[in-house]
Specification:
There is one protein chain. Helices cover 51% and strands 21% of the residues. Helix 5 runs antiparallel to helix 7, helix 5 packs parallel to helix 8 and helix 9 crosses helix 10. It is α+β, with helices and mostly antiparallel strands.
Length: 351
């Protein structure tokens, strides 16, 4: 048992390579973040190659390159990724929240906070990628062992081929998003629908005012940049404009919208410009409000159309889908509360 624990890297003496792997992978990732590849899988997946290289080099230097070393490299890379995914968020939690980050903070502090937030995302993706790689090659080794009875020489070849296969898989996954390589469709849509105990006219009246910046957000959204002001709000008619100021650890910017379509009780806001921190990760194309009559009230649908800019898609597509749906839920819930309050305060003539 002690040998297995030592081999997989849980003893105190085994932590130096983990610390080196985490440090070098973060330094490497920081270097990539200064290039045009910052939104690609090169930024989020290829640091795993650094971790694997460090652990393999450490095993060579300490003469511990024994049978099964490929799985040990993968497992230790997984441990490093998980440790990073746990450590960096703790630093992030200790930093100022988005609503306070820009208040009197220096440019240097905002830059540091932006780096910390990016490291949280990077660490999470690395942990997921390392886990997926470890499980995939573990399955491959299990199948190979069940089919072939290997000699010591074939075992060494199996280790080498497994290690090479792992490197090739990580390299292939790291290419996503590079213009000359491949990219999956980044178009996304998220809709929130709520029933409102108010007639459609009251719901439409409530929609003439944007959601206040003070409206509480779900816990998950509080780690992202948040609205802090609405300096321009002209309603929901054709040509009406709305500006929302967004601020977070990553900086401050504005989302400028204009109503380009108005049919019945449906308004479509298209983005004129977006300088918010969120624009580095996704392009907001449009926000659509639609009020439908329903039994005992109305139904409000709020739909966000966006373009995902980050890769890998298998991580960021579901992540952005969840965040976008929660965001639209905030807009729908706020409108619901204001419409129902408005409806209660209106004295209607008896029929």
């Amino acid at each position: 048992m002690d040998g297995q624990v030592s081999k997989n890297g849980f003893t105190a003496a085994s932590w130096p390579p983990h610390l080196i792997a985490m440090t070098l992978s973060m330094v490497y990732a920081w270097g990539i973040s200064q290039t045009a590849y910052v939104t690609t899988s090169v930024q989020f997946i290829s640091p795993l190659l650094v971790m694997m290289t460090v652990h393999w080099t450490w095993m060579v230097a300490t003469r511990s390159l024994e049978q099964g070393y490929a799985q040990t490299v993968f497992f230790r890379s997984l441990v490093s990724g998980l440790a990073l995914a746990l450590l960096v968020p703790l630093i992030e939690i200790a930093s100022p929240m988005p609503s306070h980050a820009g208040s009197g903070s220096s440019d240097g502090l905002q830059s540091l906070l932006m780096v910390l937030f990016c490291l949280v995302v990077l660490a999470a993706v690395l942990a997921i990628a390392a886990g997926a790689l470890h499980l995939l090659l573990k399955l491959f080794a299990f199948v190979a062992k069940a089919i072939w009875r290997r000699s010591a020489k074939s075992n060494r070849m199996h280790d080498l081929s497994s290690l090479v296969a792992g490197v090739v898989l990580v390299m292939a996954a790291s290419l996503e998003g590079i213009p000359s390589s491949y990219r999956f469709d980044g178009a996304g849509q998220a809709t929130a629908s709520v029933h409102i105990n108010a007639p459609p006219d009251d719901v439409w009246a409530a929609m003439q005012t944007a959601t206040a910046a003070e409206f509480p957000l779900p816990d998950l959204l509080q780690m992202f940049p948040q609205p802090v002001a609405v300096p321009l709000d002209e309603g929901t008619e054709i040509g009406s404009e709305r500006i929302v100021v967004v601020e977070g650890r990553e900086g401050r910017g504005s989302l400028h919208l204009r109503v380009v379509e108005r049919r019945g009780m449906k308004s479509v806001f298209h983005t004129l410009s977006d300088t918010t921190p969120i624009s580095r990760w996704a392009q907001i194309k449009s926000i659509t409000y639609e009020v439908l009559p329903a039994s005992e009230g109305s139904t409000l649908r709020v739909t966000l159309d966006y373009e995902r800019l980050l890769a890998p898609s298998w991580v960021f597509t579901p992540m952005m889908k969840v965040a976008a749906r929660l965001g639209m839920g905030v807009l729908a819930t706020d409108t619901k509360q204001r419409a129902e309050a408005l409806s209660r305060n209106i004295v209607r003539p008896a029929l």
